[in-house]
Amino acid sequence: MAKLGPYQVHVRDLPTHRAFEVSAERVSEWVRGLPMRDALGAPEVDPEAGQGTADLELYADDTHAFANGTFKGHLVVACSRCVEPVKLVIDEALRVTFMPKQEMPAEDATTDDDGAEVAADDLDVFPFDGETIDLEPLFREQFVLAIPYAPLCKEDCKGLCPQCGIDRNSGTCSCQAPIDPRLAALKGLKITQ
Ligand SMILES: [Zn+2]
Ligand SMILES: [Zn+2]
To answer: The whole model's pTM is what?
Structure first.
């Protein structure tokens, strides 16, 4: 049998109570390539990327496995205005079901036993091969979902000057907003008329 990964648990070991640690190295790997991470210009393996701790009750019935507990940690991304680091706190209650692949809801809406529409996104379900629970996709999701559309270091972050790049939170400059080149062209046109 294949060696278990750090976030995998054999069904035969259930029920069990387990704690898992997610290192900064793992976090770096999982969020690499996301725009608000790459904008930081942090090293590939960033000791400041963040970390996580999961505390879970794991159990199973005949065909499913379940994980209930908490996930706590943090993640550092770039402010969408000034590109300074922003620490995002993660503190989630987890309640997920591991289902055999053939039972997984389709990506589009499907119908449950009561005839109600259920979309895959509404359920915390992960695929399950019947032998090993793999918690890695669940943990990774905690970091990815923690990133808002436009992270901010503070509500009123002033951002960077688009001309000289100075951080307007900590400095000032005398740049003038440039005239929109299309407007400038129109002006030119008027003069020649
Ligand atoms: Zn900012
Ligand atoms: Zn400026």
So the answer is: 0.81
